[in-house]
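TA notes. Do not distribute before section.
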Amino acid sequence: MASSSDSTIMTSKVVSPASEDKAIRIERANEYPHEVWFFLACLIALVAVFRLLSFVCSKMFTRNSLSSQDSEKGASHSKAVVNIRNLPLALINLYRVVAFRFTLDFGSYSLNLAEVVLTMMYMAALFTWTFINTTNVSGGKFDVSYWSNRAGVLIASQIPLITALGTRNNIISFITGVSYENLNFLHRMAARVVFVLVWAHAGAKIAPGLEATDLKEAWLRCGILAAASLTSLCIISLRPVRARAYEFFFYTHLVLVLLVLVGAYRHTENFSPLVFSYQTYIWPSFIIWGIDRIIRVIRLVAFNHTYFGFDSGAGKALDATTELLTPKCVRLTLKRPPHFKWSPGQVAYLITPGVSSLPFESHPFTIASYDSHMSLKEITSSAASTDSDSNTTPTVSYWKELVFLINVQEGFTKRLADIAARKGSVKVYLDGPYGATHNLNTYDTNVFIAGGTGVSHTLPLLLDTIEGVRSGKSICKRVTFIWCIRDPRNITWISSVLAQALSITPDSLKVAVRIYVTGSSISNSPDVPALGYESPEATPSISSVEVDSSHTPVFEKAQETLPIKNQDNVLVDNPMSLSAFVNLPSVTMRQGRPSLTNLLKEEAEETRGGSMCVAVCGSRSIASAVRKGLQFPVSGPLTVLRGGANVSLHVESFGYA
């Protein structure tokens, strides 16, 4: 009995460490994903709080500054005097400059410090919880059995987050106020970090060697399928691939995501402990994806119900007219659906079965028109009273209808251009609107900067500001509209709507339209004798900013639109001549690239004691120039403490990361 007892004790001593290791590994594999999610929840809440505080403080201190603004401007306002009451605004501006206007450039990639910090924090969190506490009970450090399976559980726990960040309708966007297109960066970043963890997890299993019998296991084959699919996703999601073959990326992405989810679900089935199933991390992704699709379907039915025979004009009300403005620009105009409302700068997804490769292929474009609250009579009568001698027809479509200006690339846009060349019509399903909204009513000065096709984002903002001042909702006193184009003839894209907007601008609002031609010489234009443009010598500071709009098939930035008269008697736009437009009092035209740094500095000086909003949409280089122009000292905390302008910046760029 004694020897038997001793043998049992010895066996216990040999088996116990392995059993204890396993119990510890399971406990930590169950607990650490919960801790990671607690960290992420706190991070999301922190972002939401920062945005809320920035919004509240800006509004509160902007209103406070209005009461004293006139007296401060009238008095001898010394820039050396520090006003301690501006300290909250100074801190907000410091946060804005450091977080969003300082960038790190990696070739064609550019990340602001907020994106860099979020990326580093996410990486640090996942890798820390993967590799901490990996010493086994025998004292062996960095035990692979401790971190390899834990990495797999952490990967599974992040799949719902990655899925949510990639959907158009998600709760994270609702909580933080960050638009889904900006969250798309985090979607790609999280997927790439998880990709590294996937191969750390897989490598730990592959390194010792796999036997032929192992590949017969369904769970292993499903794991390999999920890892291979995620690897392929990370490759095809790189910017060069997406830019040159977006449609290939779009459909391949859809298939590979499904393979990742199904493979991961079946793979985790074999490792789920009795207390908690690791599949619980996977199946919510299907629900998130399904809810997003259901919301899209509801939008489609609500805004496109004429296609389903609910109205007498079914099949025609949402037919869109097309026109090829230039070889690289298509204008698409359609009657606004009932109940469809949008804000300036938002985008809509267009589904055109007759043009797309697949029936429900959707493409996002910026809405170049403005959802006006003015009546048709008010718009037309105001324009007629001021433009009686201009022989132009009021551009009502820009105030009442949906207008898109589409940059022609390959694939879908190339096929659409072929139809537009024949001035054909296409059937369109509409999904949207999406994207952030801008409330510009509380700013004293608004500066809108666009490069090329990016003007479709800034034009509605200008129209919104003018209407806000007319209705008494906006306190804006000054607007500067800057547009950089390659060919002076491109001005006719929006010349009529700009002329009409200037004609209805109240006297209390000063509007300056500045056109910079960076490509073809103005002298090549047929209207050059009548232009009277300012020569390059008149512009002593010309930056080296490239102002050409970047090519992006994901958000093919709508270019300016002019309405067309069709069978439904939609009012047309009769584009005014280039010379007539440029000779308007508020319009200046220059050859060369603008010195955005000097321009922004001048605008900030004019707005001392008040608030200024800058909205920019264009290439990465023009956005970078604007960010640099609004760094220290123009928008620094010391400048704000001394009565400088409180500056907000909104950058719209649809490039790839």
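Switch to the second chain here.
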Amino acid sequence: MRGPAWQRTEMSDSETEVKMSTKPTSKNQDEPFQKRLCSNLFHNIKFFVFCHSLLQLTQLMISGYLKSSISTIEKRFGLSSQTSGLLASFNEVGNTALIVFVSYFGSRVHRPRLIGLGAVLVAMAGLLMSLPHFISEPYRYDHANLGLRQDSTSSLCLLSQAPEQASASASVSTPSNSSCAFHSEAPQMAVVGLMFLAQALLGVGAVPIQPFGISYIDDFAHPNNSPLYLGILFAVTLIGPGVAFGLGGLMLRLYVDIDRMPEGGISLNPKDPRWVGAWWLGFLIAAGAVILTALPYFFFPRNMSKEQQELGFKKRILPSLNDKGENSLIKERTGNFPDKEKDEAAQIAPDLTVIQFVKIFPKVLLRNLRHPIFLLVVLAQVSMSSMVAGMATFLPKFLERQFSVTASYANLLIGSISVPGAILGIITGGVVVHRLHLSSKQCAIVGIVGAFACLILGIPLFFLGCPTHHIANIYGPSTFPENEEFLNCTQLCSCSKSDFNPVCDTSTHTEYITPCQAGCTGFKRGPGPSQDLVIYTNCSCLLSGNRKNLVISGSCESSCSNLVIPFMLLVSVGSAVASLVHTPSFMLILRGVKNEDKSLAIGIQFMLLRILAWMPSPVFHGSAIDTTCIFWASTCGLQSLCRYYDHDLLRHRFIGLQVFFKLSTLFCFILVFSILRQQEKEAACSRSQPDSVLQEEKLALNSEKQSGESTV
């Protein structure tokens, strides 16, 4: 009995040991499966392409959102267009200082982590851009009366009051020394300085994102899949500015102090020229999106195994392209160099130290700048980028001023019409170059046609606009019959020079800066539940024979606001045509430089575009816009933002700058085509000369043979 019992206990112990050993084994098998699942995800180049597309989209949301709210920031902080243009381009300062060294570092660093750190800096820049809202005082749309409530009584004429009351009220209407000290220049400069610092930080953070991302995809993707991945990356990235303008259109409908509304609300609507939208809210949303898209980069490896399989649908759809076109395109780009020489050329940059790289960079720069094709194509891209930079920065403000539309509506038009046109143009240009296998000469022809068509489409924009309506004592007929009486009347009303509360005399379509300037002593609310419309009564200083002596709050409505849609359609078609030139010009650069200089040539190209186009162009456009101002606002004797522009002069100078850059682009592409045609003729002559020599040698041999046969 003991034997079997002992056997049974031994067997039961062994069974329990097996059971105990199997439980942790299954657990250990689950953990590697989870780790393997995560490692497979972060070792997949397709997932990296997906993450990088989202990151570049959100990064462009921050830079694009500033352009969508540039006119609102001008109103909020009293900036001129020149200053706001400098602010919009200041991110290129930090970017330009570091972009060249990206070509040196290449694969020496952990690229995904650097991309993640750069994205964190971009998010911090977005948060810093919104900080001025929280450290500034609430927005007061009635700057003159710093001690009164922001209501309709704050800018009425004081003519009917008693002398002692009028003098007391006049002292209130004129800013006191204490209030001016409160609104001194130092806090304003500190707030604006924070925004400039945020823009510089945005430029520094954006340095590693695109170059390291593109090189990482190119290194570890299948050679035949890499162009497709990069095409997807650029296509998704281009949606970023459209999303930014759409976000601006939504945020600027909200009042700037939505988080700290005054008691009793406000009597403004988005159509009021004093309206300031919630410009800061979009920066918070975009910064949060960048943070979310930056997290995966800290889990990607420094190196991953190269993708082995080509995408199946690409094999089925483009078999002939992969067999013929792509190989010929690669040969044309790389040239007929031996593999050993290519490897040596590719290893030049990794073997250099930082000091050697700094020493060799000026030589490579001069060598590329001496190349006529490279120089002219870069100049053409500089001209085109200058046009795009100025249009992207100030087109919303131009639409607001020229057609009297709200900031939110202008941004929605740009985001829904103009940006999709540019995206369509870039994609179409890439498809044309890819499918037709265009040569360098044909790429130059595409550049000429695109620049010429863009120029032709820009000419009608000179005539699509609205004239400036009459503004009392600022713009209108050279002499009013009642001008002297009007000036005397406004002096008796003790009107503040820094007040701004525009009203409109609808009978003559004349605008007055304040109800006080119109001599209005009373007001009443207009019909409707919103109570936004205010009707000012007993207006004694009107320049016309308005028997009712009534004016309404807000600027006079434009008579040709419906022209904004045809204007935007022409701008959209022009941007689509101009974007066709993007890919052909890029191919001209790749084919025009030596194989070992391509990486640095691309870095030099981006550096020159930033220095010569993206940095100065917004400042040039802003300065041109400032020269068309006819009335500058002033606070405590300091000039701030422009209240009114000469619309015709604004349109002519803004569109004129665009036409100038288009002409420069066309001229550069014509020179490129001429040089390529001359090089083609010289190459044909050099090929025909050896053929003629060979024919002469054959004739000489034949004659010798004939003479030998005759002697025999």
